[in-house]
Amino acid sequence: MANLSHPMFHNDDAARAHLEAIRWPHGPNCPHCGNADQETIAKVEGRKKSHRDGLYYCNACKGTFTVTVGTVMERSKVALHKWVLAFHLYAASKKGMSAHQLHRMIGVTYKTAWFMSHRIREAMMEDVDSSGPIGGETDIVEADETYIGKAEDQKAPVSRQGRPYKSKKFGTRKQTIFSLVKRGGSVRSFVVKGATTKQIQDILFRNVPRDTALYTDESRIYHDMRWHYAEHQTVKHSAGEYVRGNVHTNTIENVFSVFKRGMRGVYQHCAEKHLHRYLAEFDFRYNRRSALEISDSQRANDAIRGAIGKRLMYQQTGTA
Ligand SMILES: [Zn+2]
């Protein structure tokens, strides 16, 4: 965790300077027209009380902007130093953090903390198009599915009368997660409805290049993968076989176990429609784990970088 006494966690000007340094390492760019010519961008200072802090004027398009325009923080009433702190808390927390913890730690209402946490997850969501394939020649990729929402994973809360709530939110419907992990590299997870062979194969073909060595369990879903990949090895879990030389799926199972522990301890009320956001959060941290020499601060700055350009994608979660 970064040093929490840093001014950016307590002071809005310091927080803004931090965000500007991350977003605009070479000086402000106009998010409306793309103008980056520093001669034609000016800081709007103190002429009117009504001016927002950190306001810039772009002479090219005659528009004004601040560092949060076009990010998940745009139009938020929450002080910037609280946003910066929240980004750092989510980036550094090994098992995730609930909106309730955030609410207590940064002093915003529970509802605001909930919206912030979802926006931070949105920022952590990987852009699959720009992050490229998982695997390649000489790479080993483990693929596996797991289920969230089984009775043993997520107990439905019980009403005062002792009957389980029938609310859909706490339903015991299983949701399938399918994940790909490159050994020594990145993970990419998907929520798949139904988990048919075709869906799983489509995800594999779209994300894992054919020259990869693919390791899975003996599930029928992967039966003809040896025709599609340079190599396909399986372990027979049903026969008690988990490791055969370097053939195993332990890497992906460890990823699942961190996620499930996080979901059980922290995110007990994860509605179905948000599962992909939680997965994105855990994938984000795994892909920047400390074993890859990435510090908590670098991880937080990456999340802040991810907040840019995500303005439109989270609108369905409401406002804070
Ligand atoms: Zn402009």
Could you outline the blueprint of secondary structure elements for this entry?
Elements: H1 12-23, E1 41-43, E2 56-58, E3 63-65, H2 80-92, H3 99-106, H4 110-124, H5 128-131, E4 140-148, E5 175-182, E6 187-192, H6 197-207, E7 213-217, E8 231-235, H7 250-265, H8 275-286, H9 296-306
Helix pairs in contact: 1-2, 2-9, 3-4, 4-8, 4-9, 7-8
The structure holds zinc ion (ZN).
Zinc ion is lined by residues 30, 32-33, 35, 58, 60-61, 63.
Descriptive terms for the model:
8 strands, single chain, alpha/beta, binds zinc ion, 320 residues, elongated, 9 helices, Nucleotidyltransferase, domain 5
Describe the structure.
The chain is α/β, with parallel strands linked by helices. It has a domain at 131-273: Nucleotidyltransferase, domain 5. It contains nine helices and eight strands. Zinc ion is lined by residues 30, 32-33, 35, 58, 60-61, 63.
